[in-house]
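Table S2 (continued). Query chain:
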Amino acid sequence: MSSAEDPVCVKPELDAKAHPKCAKQFSAYESCAQRVAAGSVEQGKNCSGYYNEYFMCIDKTNAKALFKLLK
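Corresponding output:
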């Protein structure tokens, strides 16, 4: 198999294109991460919910484009 036949993962490129559409979710995640880093939240709390919301938006935005590329 030559390098011309090697599969190329397009998901990172699609994720970058989808980011502007999910800016609200990303902003909420960043705000949470800053609060956690500053220690202004309860011990043991994290931002996984905000992280998941952001990536659900990314995945939903990418779904049609990604499935068109699958064989």
